[in-house]
Amino acid sequence: MVLKNATILVIDDDVDVLTALRLLLKPMVKEVVTEKNPSNITAQIERANYDIIILDMNFNGLVNTGNEGIFWLNKIKQLKPETSVILMTAYADIDLAIRGLKEGASDFLMKPWKNEKILETITTILGNKKSKTSNKEHLNSNSIEIIGNSDAMDNVFVKLKKVAPTDANVLVLGENGTGKDLIARALHDNSNRRHQPFIKVDVGALTESLFESELFGYKKGAFTDAREDRKGRFEAANGGTLFLDEIGNISLSQQVRLLTVLQNRQVTPLGSNEPISVDIRLICATNIDPKELADEKKFRKDLIYRINTVDIIVPPLRNRGTDITELAHHFVSLYAEKYNKNTFSFDSGFISKLKKHDFPGNVRELQYVLERAVIMTDGSVLKPEDLVFSSIERSTTTTNFESKSLNLDDLEKNAILTVLEKNKGNVSKSAKELGITRAALYRRLEKYEL
After folding, report:
1. Is 31 helix (H, G, I), strand (E, B) or coil?
2. I need a labelling partner for 239 at 20 to 30 A (CA). Which of 207, 321, 389, 403 fits?
3. What's the pLDDT tens digit per position in 297-320?
4. What b-and-e string marks burial along 375-398, b requiring 16 or more CB atoms within 10 Å of the CB?
5. What structural domains and CATH numbers belong to the chain?
6. Per DSSP, what are the bridge partners of residue 286?
């Protein structure tokens, strides 16, 4: 049973509730910790990792609106985004329940509860978590960890798990900076070829004159500077995986030469008439819009069929939900160690500012932004002002994979985010610049959950 290895934290200012839940759960789980004072939540979750936190939404001494629970839910998700939270309240407020779920809660229970319902809810959450992480554990056993728990990335993990053990050719699609090379490496490291070479080539950077010599090799004397025989990348990858990055940028003439090799599974080095058989698993990647790849004036359809037995689309960071928080913790920890700095904590507005940015440069941009923040920050707390986003990324055109939304709500939301960021969160200045009242801006902030 998945319960037996679980650690659970229960937070409620009612001692009777804590006692009842401890007695119910203690025989079934690994550990139950109870906490009466919500002010100790931060210390509790920094001290230990909990699989599930059961959080009351109302506490004595405050107005019982349920907003206390929302506040602490956000705090938990900021510090430990991977932790599942179950909200509990005595008030049957469906709107509040929906808001809690939108803010990241895993489920919502009403008081008085039924023991069977609590156990069923906990078991379901743990089961879903185990199912989701099992894909990652399988994929990470031999490779660099791919971080992410969002539904968008879960779809990638499921596809990776199915495709990796096969010899199917894979086309990895995604915007710049999404981590296509990590996906390619994960495919190799979790395949039957993992003990054989993994050779990466940025074919988009190869000139016409270098294309054949780099990929297919050459014999001594084949051209002026060919002083000795040299294996091409296809031959170097024999028995393993060949990863051709930026495949969408090669010319039509290069595509013809590549197609011939893939059809025959043989390469003929420059200066030789003897073909050499090669056994490779081919992975290709591009940031080109799939619609452009379908244009035969730019890309041969017969080559697309050869390289695209299966495609994997890596989602942009803006579509990955809470992954941005998990990635932020990872990169900050990584660079703190690299630059010999102490452990950092995040100011409440730090993660909020990250989430409001659309990251046109995706994970790569996030990585550079956080590296700069770690380097430039003197204290141990990262604040919103430590985040400086690249004007270079902002000037680039947005995404080849999804068009800019012209929905009026989206346009209004983006305008509000832009002005708020410009004014460093100052509502009065932002309202004035937008030409609306403070009250109207607050209503829109609530509408768009900003």
Report:
1. strand
2. 207
3. 888 989 999 999 999 999 999 988
4. eebeeeebebebbebeeebeeeee
5. 2-134 (3.40.50.2300), 151-313 (3.40.50.300), 318-447 (1.10.8.60)
6. 173
